Amino acid sequence: MSDITKPTIFVTRRWPADAEAALSKYFTPTFNSEDVPLTTQQIADGFASHDALAPTVSDTITAEIIEAGAAGKGKFVANYGVGVNHIDIEACKAASIPVSNTPGVLTDATADITMTLMLMLARRAGEGERELRGGNWAGWRPTHLMGRQLSGKTLGIIGMGRIGKAVARRCALGFGMKVVFYNRSKVDDCADINAVQMASVVDVCAAADIVSLHCAASPDTFEIMNAAAFDAMPSDAVIINTARGDVIDESALVKALNAGSIGGAGLDVFQGEPNINPDILTAPHTVLLPHLGSATLETRTAMGLKVVDNLRAFFASEPLVDPVC
Ligand code: DGY
């Protein structure tokens, strides 16, 4: 295809080099060369003047953007990422704009960052690093910064999809942990790790030493970790969130941390990112990361290649590889 006939793609951020090269092979992309957040108006103008839009989790794709795109050249939204809670899917359906995402390729990276948070919390690694860098390490002593072991503990998963299962397998097979979980529908392919499905989020919270959130953000899961769920957790149990900020009631979390009614929190995602509730920054026993779940070169490249696969399918009038709507 000559450049003149290649469909044009408006890409809201920069991608890893190999993914940008693959996109440029088949399409004429416009990348956001500054790699800074774009305004709603800039994205709307970009979509309206290109055949497709490739946004990320850091963009809010409003009905206004979708309508502007549909009124112009825009025909398709190929999301760079698996979660699509930042896209007004109803507006896409209303404008007959299909949407794709990138499931599967970020499972391992996200499961690994979950383990990172879990181990950092359990072994007090952040506290130790801050102490050492601050010049405050007084040397080895038997009671210094004692953490807890993962082996023998119970992991509670909320949302037993691909990532939940990958975390469960790491914990059961790699760390000798027991696994309980809550999932809206019945899950029956975890028998090899003896994972036990429970009836409610509160049941999981009451049974687990570590609760890890892996459900998609939706109206059904909005603040699914609420005051009742935190109240059910034992006082030394910790919560890990690598899903989306909106699945936790952050005020309830801050209250539980400050009161010592839970043992800690490891968070990679936040409500209203990148603006973090200041009370979370000052709450005790937290490990906080800037949404690094999928941030490996391998995964971020694979996510871009998936976007390319979906764009190619769309413009060849073939079924989407990863249809959302
Ligand atoms: C996703 O793909 O939804 C991730 O949160 C981005 O890392």
From TrEMBL:
The keyword Nucleotide-binding does not apply. It is an enzyme of class 1 (oxidoreductase). Its EC number is 1.1.1.26. Pfam families: 2-Hacid_dh, 2-Hacid_dh_C. GO terms for cellular component: cytosol. One of its GO terms (molecular function) is glyoxylate reductase (NADPH) activity. CDD domains: GDH. PROSITE patterns: D_2_HYDROXYACID_DH_1 (PS00065), D_2_HYDROXYACID_DH_3 (PS00671). Keywords: NAD, Oxidoreductase. Residues 115-293 form the D-isomer specific 2-hydroxyacid dehydrogenase NAD-binding domain. Residues 14-324 form the D-isomer specific 2-hydroxyacid dehydrogenase catalytic domain. Belongs to the D-isomer specific 2-hydroxyacid dehydrogenase family. This is 2-hydroxyacid dehydrogenase.
